[in-house]
Design goal:
Blueprint: E1 2-5, H1 15-28, H2 35-39, H3 46-54, H4 59-77, H5 85-94, E2 98-102, H6 107-116, E3 125-127, H7 136-147, E4 154-158, H8 161-169, E5 173-177, H9 182-191, E6 196-197, H10 200-210
Parallel strand pairs: 1-2, 1-4, 2-3, 4-5, 5-6
Helix pairs in contact: 1-4, 3-4, 4-6
């Protein structure tokens, strides 16, 4: 069994940090975007989103500014992992369960957060996002190839509707974490029946049955 973990909204409730970084980076580049306007662009990595906003010729220094703000504001906006996330990782590690990191994140922001939360050593392999758009279905296929496993041997833990779509498109079971969002929880139960949870404690109970 391989357990794959998303980051934003799953291992960490990081959207407020990302919003702050996008707002400041966009203002630095001379543009003001709303939270909804930024969220509509989600799919690529953070670098890819900024590239989409500012274009190929000018985006790189703006992304560097994003990274600067990310490091400055991390402790303020994202001081801890989602409750129960680290306990889950430690349990799976102790029981020799193969874990992979599979997120739409850019390498640089993931590396910073990984160091901040001391997560080095938990994941057997890391699969990151693309500048061009959502690549989770392709990365889930890579997991199958890299570890020589079938789709039935993978469980993905994510938080979004896109995570459900990505996993379902390649036949991988997804456990959806809906943290402190009761309306979203009820809606997700219609999309992903019997696989929606509000906390990592219940997800770990499910994983203990699967592994």
């Amino acid at each position: 069994m391989i357990v794959a973990f998303d980051f934003d909204g799953t291992l960490a409730q990081s959207f407020s940090l990302c919003d702050e970084c996008f707002f400041k980076a966009c203002r630095y580049g001379g543009k003001n975007l709303t939270k909804e306007g930024i969220r509509d662009l989600f799919g690529p990595t953070e670098e890819g989103i900024i590239k989409k906003i500012f274009g190929d010729e000018t985006y790189k220094p703006i992304f560097e500014y994003y990274l600067k703000i990310y490091a400055q504001k991390h402790e303020e906006f994202l001081p801890k992992l989602t409750p129960g996330a680290l306990t889950t990782l430690k349990y799976l590690k102790k029981h020799n369960v193969t874990m992979v990191f599979l997120s739409g994140r850019s390498l640089k922001t993931w590396e910073y957060s990984k160091k901040f939360f001391a997560l080095d050593g938990y994941f057997d392999k890391e699969y990151l996002g693309s500048l061009d758009g959502v690549n989770k279905p392709e990365n889930l296929k890579k997991v199958m190839e890299d570890f020589n496993v079938k789709k039935e041997d993978i469980i993905y833990i994510g938080d979004s509707m896109q995570d459900i779509k990505s996993s379902s498109s390649v036949g991988v079971t997804i456990l959806s974490l809906v943290y402190r969002k009761p309306k979203k929880y009820e809606f997700f139960k219609t999309l992903n029946p019997n696989n929606v949870y509000t906390n990592f404690g219940d997800i770990l109970k499910r994983l203990k049955l699967e592994i």
